User: What shape does this take?
Amino acid sequence: MKFRQAWQRIVRMLVKEFIQTLRDPRMRFVLIGPPIIQMMVYGYAATYEVKHVTMALLDLDKTQESRDLIARFTGSQYFNLSPAHYATEPTQLRNWIDRGDVLLAVQIDSGFAQRLRNGQGAQVEVIVDSSNSNTALIALGYLSQTGAKFAQDYQIEALQRASPQQAAFMPQVDLETRPWFNEGLESKWFFVPGVICNLLLIMIMSLTSSAVVREREIGTLEQIMVTPIRRWEFIIGKTLPFYLIGIFDALLISLVGTLWFGVPFRGRVVVMAAGTLIFLLSSIGVGLFLSTISATQQQSMITAFFFIMPAVTLSGFATPISSMPPLWQKLSYLNPMRYFMIVVRGIYLKGVGFDVLWPQFLGMGIIGVTLLTISVLRFHKSLD
Amino acid sequence: MSPARIFAMMRKEITQVLRDPRSLLVILLMPVMQLVIYGYAVNLDVNHIPLCVYDRDDTQTSQELIKRFQATDYFTIVHVAHDYPDVLHQIDSGVATTAIVIPSQFDETLRSSGKAGVQLLIDASDSNSANVAMGYAQSIIQSYSSDILVDWEQQHGLPATGGGTVQFQARTWYNEDLESMANIVPGVVAMVMAVVGSFLTSLTIAREWERGTMEMLISTPVSALEIQIGKLVPYFFIGVMDTTLCAVMGVWWFGVPFRGSWIVMFSTSALFLTVVLSLGYYFSVVAKSQMAASQLAMLATFLPTFLLSGFLFPIDQMPKPVQWLSVILPARYYVEILRSVFLKGTSISLMTGQIVALTIISVILIALATRAFHKRLE
Assistant: This one.
């Protein structure tokens, strides 16, 4: 009997919340349109892939060796060396870099081949536009890989010319790389699951953070206080709609990720569903907690934002957590997104299940339950 | 238009801002925190890649190779596996993202027939880090291979060819030390300003409607334009404070070069602020509820500035439709301007395109907001 009454009160609260949220046609749009649109745009935008590094070249050596090296650039899919960017003097290189026409300028000085033949190190001068340091680093990485491969091949050829019989027994270590889970090294496969996590967190957090405060600000909280509803019933009724909206949106954007972007979904849907539920629990926990410590919607939303920015940065979305300093790695355990990022990427790409992911589930669960409990305790059904 | 009424409106708005010191503090701390996180926590360089080692040979030669991996900062050996399933488990669970498997008879093969293969297993779900890790591993193996070749040549009395390497002497222009901070400061400034500017203003008009105080404002002689100016000016100053804070911290604390002129920096920042403030104002006029308005402002500023402005991910590598979309994004122009001002020190004449674009966007937004706001009850 008692339970039925409580249930009825929660349902009433739920209905009220749904009406309030969905009454506004703009709000209805906000819940469906933007998640899909954002998923599409950011799925494409977020990539570190640097293909076709535009480059310019000046060959002052003009030997077989220098031409061989250049052929490696023109033959590579990483570099884009157009015929218009063959320079005849060094100032041209500088101009092109200054104007932003090319990212990379390579100058092979005379004596390049001679030094190689002598078994000395040959140097090649390079100018990189590093105003985007990340792109510059990647371009330099491509360069040094090309150079190392060139040198190794050159060395082997030299030896084969010098003593063909012995060269057959020359010791050599080859590296056979096997990229797993993302065999084609598609940047999209990594970022699309990450975008799913971001969108969910931002939406749910900003919605829940203003949930309780809005009632307080508009003055309707007083009306609720005079009803027989208990505080935990109020909290459940208040958050359940966001929970359901979250599940709906998670489904929506996961479908876009799989159907539109073709990111493989290798795990089981059950694991993904469970992960999403626990993640929503933890982000609603954070949002609700912020809502209970704020007096106005402005306060709660600004505080929510204060949380979201570092949460996105420290989630491993754009940069690996393992390259962060130890202190920050420890801090990231407070961030529900950190766990969910591992869960979503694990399910999508690796196809792992509960046996591997349970620590992440536990982490999110602890955050969620703790914050929800604190929020219920902090929330008093009385005027202050 | 009466200056007295605008002034009164401003005073009301400032009083309201000051009455909520927590929000004000958060707004001023936000850029500082964001810079500290990016400056100290985020590292775009990939190093200390967790490596799992499975040495099936276990000879001095194979140990030697493992030591090469140990000696660099690129890899950190987190696990030594004793069978293959163990290796798989390490990668599946994410304890290690790379594993190196040295075959049995590695040493013997090198001595007799020459070519020995080493296997590198990589968790490539993060394709970028995987690519970098592969590059590092490749160069470690190549230098090792080259070293044993030199030894072998000496033993067999052959001419040394091992020294014939190619080195690229790179000069990095505009950002000599490849500091990612120099890259990040302009991005953070744009992100914080876009968010603070549009987010705060999106709440301001919607709050009046929601609380019912708009009716009181309507009953006063203040005009729509006066409300608009009076409401926006205080936030304009908060925005300017945030910009200054970011720039000063970036230059003095994190040592980002500042090669342009402060006048250019502040005048373009004022222009960008006008854009984002009008955007937030427009949303709050249209949405009339704080929740919907702030959701819209968040949608239009935070992620677009984070992902589409070119601050983290280069725009020219995005697909064409996404590049076209970024044309209407004000933050994109502002990031470009800031990058020139901080790193290149180019003159203002080279930024005409960006400044014109920002001006057009701001005029459109102001027109839209003014048209949408009616000083009457529905």
Summary: Residues 133-162 of chain A form the longest helix (30 residues).
